[in-house]
TrEMBL record:
One of its GO terms (biological process) is DNA-templated transcription. The keyword DNA-binding applies. PROSITE patterns: HTH_LYSR. The lineage of its organism: Bacteria, Pseudomonadati, Pseudomonadota, Alphaproteobacteria, Rhodobacterales. This is HTH-type transcriptional regulator GltR. It comes from Limimaricola soesokkakensis. The gene is gltR_1. Belongs to the LysR transcriptional regulatory family.
Length: 301
């Protein structure tokens, strides 16, 4: 029977796909990790990784070990929870999210939850791509599309809305066809990582003169020039902008909460997921209501 500490090292390297990536979380140097992995492979009599300059990739034997070890890790976590009185939440939880949610909704939601659970450490992983839960990049993730594969559990959090917006002092377009005369702000087309983020078809546009893979950067671009599709919940953070052509174009998307299937039996993560989903739902509704309130102040065109 293998030492659990060796299995913990193996899992960290497997998830990071490199010694240097796993080292900080384990508080070990890469050379030590390399020796630990080599000793484990020697004891098992099998290669667990294919080593290359690009990193450490699991062999078929390594994949099987990672699957069983991940289940054991989850079982150990549940056992530890079972022996702990149910009080406030504690420990570290990492949430992956697209940067719109990560920048404009999650910070205040996480701050409120952590204030009620001072022993809880919350981390927000903001990425311009889908978070890889199978590699344990995060404990759970907010996504804009429900995943279609993987051993995951999915629940819908809430719908959210998006509108065309521009600087309040810019000429107001009267129809969508007027957009051809204005620089359009949006995603870099070949870096759109989810079909729900592809808005060009809704605009009838062929290109994006001002583009970024980040929602936050797009919002900063709009503060200077152009017109583009913006989350309604982000507009309270940009008072210089106003919505336009709301009768002609309004998009609805959804946030989904995605978790590892094995974590369904974790009371701690289940409690946190329920708190997170409810708080996200409430905060999106609050910010969108604040955006709508701006109508009387001339926010909409």
């Amino acid at each position: 029977m293998e030492n659990w500490d060796d299995i913990r090292v193996f899992l960290a390297v497997a998830r990071a796909e490199s010694l240097s990536g796993a080292a900080p979380g384990l508080r070990m140097d890469p050379a030590t990790l390399g020796r630990r992995v080599a000793r484990l492979e020697e004891r098992l009599g099998a290669a667990l990784f294919v080593k290359s300059p690009q990193g450490y990739a699991l062999t078929p034997r390594g994949e099987r070990l990672a699957e069983h070890a991940g289940r054991a890790e989850a079982a150990l976590a549940r056992a530890a929870e079972a022996g702990t009185p149910e009080r406030g939440l504690s420990g570290q939880i990492r949430i992956g999210a697209p940067d719109g949610c990560a920048n404009f909704v999650l910070p205040q939601v996480c701050a409120a939850i952590q204030a009620e659970n001072p022993d809880l450490e919350l981390q927000i992983l903001a990425l311009p791509r889908v978070v890889n839960l199978s590699k344990r990049e995060a404990d759970m993730a907010v996504t804009v599309s429900p995943p279609e594969a993987g051993r995951l559990t999915v629940q819908k959090i809430t719908d959210y809305r998006l509108s065309l917006a521009q600087r309040a002092d810019a000429p107001v377009p009267t129809r969508l066809s007027d957009l051809g005369t204005r620089p359009l702000v949006g995603y870099i087309p070949d870096m759109i990582f989810d079909r729900e983020l592809d808005y060009l078809g809704s605009l009838g546009a062929q290109g994006v003169p001002l583009a970024s893979n980040s929602v936050s950067v797009q919002l900063q671009m709009l503060r200077h020039a152009g017109i583009g599709i913006v989350h309604d919940f982000a507009l309270p953070f940009a008072p210089e902008l106003r919505r336009v052509l709301t009768d002609e174009l309004r998009l609805t998307r959804a946030f989904w909460l995605v978790r590892h299937a094995a974590d369904r039996r974790s009371a701690r993560l289940t409690r946190f997921a329920a708190l997170l989903a409810a708080a996200l739902r409430a905060e999106v509704a609050r910010l969108e209501a604040e955006c709508l309130t701006g109508t009387s102040a001339g926010r909409d065109g």
